[in-house]
Amino acid sequence: MPSSTQNKWLWWLTARKRHCHRCHNNISHNSYERSNHYPWIDRRLYDLLCAPCMANIPWITTVQCIRCGRAQVCQDCHYRKASALRCNRSAVRYTDEMKQWLSTYKFQGDARYRELLAYMQSHVYEQVTLQLVRDQGLYEHWQASRLTIRTYAKQYKLWQVVTAVPISEERLLERGFNQAQQLALKIAEYGELPFIELLRRQRDSIKLSSKKKWERVSTVRQLYISDSSYWLPLMGVLMQSPSLSIPDQPSINLQQRASNQQASSRTPINILLIDDVYTTGSTIEACSQAIINCSPSEVAIYGLTWARA
After folding, report:
1. 136 vs 115: CA distance, rounded Å
2. Distance CA 58, CA 135 (A)
3. I need a surface site. Which of 60, 77, 158, 262 has the fewest CB within 10 A?
4. What is 132-175 written as a DSSP string?
5. Please, are residues 82 and 112 in contact by the beta-carbon 8 Å criterion?
6. So what's the pLDDT on residue 258?
7. Which residues contact 92 (CB under 8 A, 6 or more apart)?
8. From residue 17, how far is each of 4, 6, 34, 47 by CA, in Å?
9. b (16+ CB within 10 A) / e for 169-202
10. For residue 244, which phi and psi values (nearest 5 degrees)?
11. CA-based max dimension of the chain
12. Nearest residue to 122 via CA among 287, 272, 291
């Protein structure tokens, strides 16, 4: 808050004009409310939501299933023997309240929710990037660098591209936008990464939300496709901006240094795949498999979704 008395009044009058995106009440957050919330919450959310609506967000604070990012033990992943997706991380649990939020954006076309959902999702970018760092054996190198995980990913070009789960042409004409693509564009902006469409949906089908679990799995297997034309823009990006090798660090022992160099030499194309909701994982798994089937090189696909059912 500005220090002068005049500016304090100006700030107060401006703040009074802000209304919550969800309930439309005036937004007013005191210093206690801000400090009492989770430290990783995107501060821009305080300009979009009032304190009661912020308190209603069911954040996923503890991950029990390393593969899908669920807050409790996941039977789906336990029985899935192999996966094209390395892992998924989500921002919130898909409660009835969150279903209403997504419905307002997805089916009623309230554009304000695009920014709101994207800001809620931004901290998950750090979580999934940290998992990538662990998978590539770079955790100690990252710690020694003393960089934030976001800055580290940018400096060493850990991610090559952001893409999104596509929707059918019929759904696109009906809604006017692809909600997963809109969220992906915001994540790409946040991570300073290119967004490239790598997938298309071959045909329309009954809305997956109306299907049972086993029906969803069988429906989506042949629903998504990728072909060589989608990869040309990505190959151009990779040629212009290749991944950086990890330099030696005196604080890292020889064994870890050798492990880092080995990991760097075999690093695949790291792709961040965005969707709105992870339910059974059948959609994001089918998309990942379609990308792998068409990829000209080894790829590692990580999912980032707004909600986990």
Report:
1. 32
2. 28
3. 262
4. HHHHTT-HHHHHHHT--HHHHHHHTT---EEEE----HHHHHHH
5. no
6. 45
7. 57, 58, 59, 60, 98, 120, 306, 307, 308
8. 20, 17, 19, 11
9. eebeeeeeebbbbbbbbbbbebbebbbbbbbbbe
10. -85, 145
11. 64
12. 272
Place of tokens 């591209």: 161
Residue 198, both tokens: 């790598």
Show the CA angle centred on residue 196, arms to residues 192 and 70, nearest 5°: 75
Which two three-digit tokens encode residue 152? 């580290």
Residue 86: HSE in the Cβ half-sphere, 13 Å Cα cutoff: 24
Alpha-carbon span 60 to 121, nearest angstrom:
11
pTM value is: 0.85
How does DSSP classify residue 86?
E
